[in-house]
Input
Amino acid sequence: MEGLITKSCKLVGLAGAVLALSLMAGCSSNEPTPEQRAVNAANRADQAASRAQAASQTAQQAAASSQAAASRVQQAASDAKAAADRAEAIAARTMASSPRPHSYRRHHKPAAEAAPAPSDSGAAAPPAATP
Output
């Protein structure tokens, strides 16, 4: 924006210089009078200043638009990071609470119970263990 203001000031200065030269050089009867040339130069300078001001406003609007877009991108990135963090936390909880495989143990009977029952052959049964 400062560049546009500087250009506008230069244009106004240039118009003033043209006016001064036209007044100093004088004019013939075919050419416009110095007053007319001054008015024309002032009009051109005014038009240039208007165009510079419009360009400045357009640049300001573009800058505000790009700043808003950058803000939206930053917010989207922040939201994506938060979602990733939540997903990671859920995954960690899921992995921690998942059922573990059951280890099946086979229970063995004590040796006294594992002995065969006495048969009818008349042999004496071994004595039972007392606690």
